[in-house]
Amino acid sequence: MPLQNSIRFKFAPAKAWAAVLWMLRQEPSCDLHTGLKACYFADKKHLNEHDRPIFGATYRAMKFGPVPLEIYDIMQGSPLYLAELGADRYPWELRGFTLLMRDNSDPDLSVLSESDMEALEYGYRQARSLTFNERTAATHGRDWQAGRLGTMRYEDMIEDRPDKAEKVAFLREAAPYLRL
Prior knowledge:
There is one protein chain. This protein has 180 residues and is mainly alpha-helical. The protein has one domain (3-177). The chain has nine helices and five strands, in the order H-E-H-E-E-H-H-E-E-H-H-H-H-H. The chain has helices spanning 13-26, 32-50, 69-75, 82-85, 114-129, 132-138, 142-147, 154-157, 164-174; strands spanning 29-31, 59-62, 65-68, 92-95, 98-101. A hairpin with a 2-residue loop joins strand 2 (59-62) and strand 3. Helix 1 (13-26) packs across helix 3 (69-75) and helix 2 (32-50) packs across helix 5 (114-129). It is globular, with a radius of gyration of 16 Å.
């Protein structure tokens, strides 16, 4: 199915900012692969349990697994989201492939719902518990394969269930209007 008819959510940069900062408060450094896969695991879990992702990012099926493109931009310190977030700079910096805390900022967890936090904690635990190769293998499922090294579809992230067709149809219509 062409991407223009696919489920598309409006990206939630404040949630991404809070999630990245929360991960860095758990450990003062985080490699990109771990952070990006934590977001993927969290988004996919939340989508399947609550019929919406946490972040609404655009996922690209890349060689080493799914990459939420907007979150990747934020992790890299792209100035694109700073004005929208009311910030002058990011409280982290990227050195090589590692995010490092730059200051003692605390995440604004009020932008994340209780279910968002549960899924984020799950995603982070999952990503941290696996080696690079294990994380890569764990994220090369049916949804990643269907992306064919291009844009992944949320339809493919939804697990098979009796009401999948109805959920997909609903989300195709409602997703652009949902506030994540």
